[in-house]
Design brief:
4% strand, 2 strands, mainly alpha, elongated, two-stranded antiparallel ribbon
Length: 99
């Protein structure tokens, strides 16, 4: 289609909703917040293949490692001159919720 000045007009932007990408956006947004007990972790229930399963499995392992590392970091962070330790089951309780 030509524009008023005779040049080719850009093609209209066609967006399709990819359920897996939408799920990843939601999941990564939650992971970005850090390990908050009780935060709902969305489950992916859309079309799946070996690639989506591999990505979800890797993200789950990554999230467990992230939460464990955050637990260790927080457990040694001094607050008002005193060492603070958080509950050791934090990472374990979250790993059951990780997709």
């Amino acid at each position: 289609m030509a524009s008023l000045d005779g040049t080719a007009a850009p093609e209209p932007l066609v967006t399709t909703v990819d359920p897996f990408k939408s799920h990843l956006v939601a999941l990564l947004s939650i992971y970005e917040l850090g390990p908050f007990p009780g935060a709902p972790i969305p489950r992916y229930e859309g079309p799946s293949d070996w690639q989506t399963e591999t990505i979800l499995r890797s993200l789950s392992a990554f999230a467990r490692r992230m939460w464990s590392a955050e637990e260790v970091a927080v457990s040694y962070k001094p607050v008002n001159g005193q060492e603070v330790r958080i509950h050791r089951d934090l990472a374990a309780s979250r790993s059951a919720d990780v997709p």
